[in-house]
Amino acid sequence: MRIIKIFSALLLVFSLVLNTCWARQGNRKNPWITARSFVVMDIDDGHVLYAKEPYLKLPAASTVKVMTAIIVLENSSLKNSVVISKNAAGTEPSKAYLGAGATYSTYDLLQALLISSANDAAVALAESISGTEDKFVVLMNWKAKTLGMKNTRFVNASGLPGRRAQHYTTAYDLAVLMRYASQNSVFNQILGMRASAIKGSDGRRIYLSNHNKLLRTHPKFVVGKTGYTMKAKHCFLGADHKCPKNIVFSILYSRNPWQDIRRLASYGLRLENNRKK
């Protein structure tokens, strides 16, 4: 009986030590977040609440489309008509399969861009603003500089890997971008749509489903823009939707994005609430 009691006591001590180690790891080394880089930021004053490798330069996949959307929103009317060029229609998937020669409103193309991450919509919108995608990219990089995104270079409007040069950014720069973009009500409205449908001059209806799965499982949780390529892995740029929008956050090179998003959003809100008490 005495041996059993001693063994039980030793087991209890071992469990406490193990739990303490895991807790320390969770606070200091972030093993519970799979993203290689992330930032959680206060949406009001830009204060960084929590971060890992915030200035590490990485590809950002389709989160680049947040910059594309903002430039379009600031330089075009939502009712403007956009004719889809052969170049835009031939853009690689993910795409909405817009028909060459068909006409869509800027608002419809923004929905395709932000809801279903359509690369053909990205190119069509870029061409509608600047004539060519390359000229539009000049605007993207200029806007990045004005926002203080010092470690960012865009090479296209979609986030696809570049043919001649590669784009890069950091989790910090993306959080700065999302903090700015979240001030636009139309941007927020579109990101919050779980699904939509658009119709061009060719009469074909295109149904859009949001790539942000959390809008279906947690509709009042997080809005944001997803991204994925083989090189970039999973990326996400989002804002909390509950309190309302007290934080923005970005993740780059994640292996389990939905787990990372839920944990960062919840932990970030706790940090934010404690900071403002």
How would you describe the overall organization of this protein?
It is a single chain. With 277 residues, this protein is α+β, with helices and mostly antiparallel strands. Strands 2-1-9-8-7 form a 5-stranded antiparallel sheet. The chain has a two-stranded antiparallel sheet with strand order 3-4. The protein has helices at residues 2-28, 65-75, 86-89, 106-115, 119-130, 133-146, 171-181, 185-191, 214-217, 257-275, and strands at 37-42, 48-52, 81-83, 103-105, 195-199, 205-209, 222-229, 233-240, 247-254. It has 10 helices and 9 strands. The model is unreliable at 1-28 (pLDDT under 50). Helix 2 (65-75) runs antiparallel to helix 4 (106-115) and helix 4 packs antiparallel against helix 5. It has a single domain, classed as DD-peptidase/beta-lactamase superfamily (Beta-lactamase, 3-Layer(aba) Sandwich), CATH 3.40.710.10. It is globular. Strand 5 and strand 6 form a beta hairpin.
